[in-house]
What we know:
Keywords: Membrane, Transmembrane, Transmembrane helix. The chain crosses the membrane at residues 12-32. With 120 residues, the chain is an alpha+beta fold. It is built from 2 helices and 3 strands; from the N terminus they run H-H-E-E-E. The chain has helices at residues 9-59, 65-79, and strands spanning 84-90, 93-101, 115-119. The protein has a 3-stranded antiparallel sheet. The chain is rod-shaped, with a radius of gyration of 26 Å. The model has no long low-confidence stretch (mean pLDDT 84).
Amino acid sequence: METHTGTSLIEVMISLFILSVMLLGVEAVQIISLKKSLNAYYLAVAVRQLDVMHERLRRANEVDLKDWLIAWNTQNQASLPEGKGEITGVIPDLRITLCWRRQHDFGRNNPSAQTTCLYA
């Protein structure tokens, strides 16, 4: 009676299947971390944009808010997905709002994306 040593084809197939499932899990984690880092980047950009406008308005005496708002929204739309800012109130009690669409998928035309707003 002969004894066979080594691995069988079934054992190799099962090992490859387990390895492939583990690699798919690692890829899923990487995709989720990319999405989260993209949203964190947009939040950092929005905070910076809000700070810039807040500082401009704080230092200005007589301001043409329409021109500043148009220029600011041009910057917002270039740096944030569907970025739009609003300034309400009268000097010195102004409220600055900046809204943009959070990206859950990597496409810009995503109906499941949520709108996020910051206020100052």
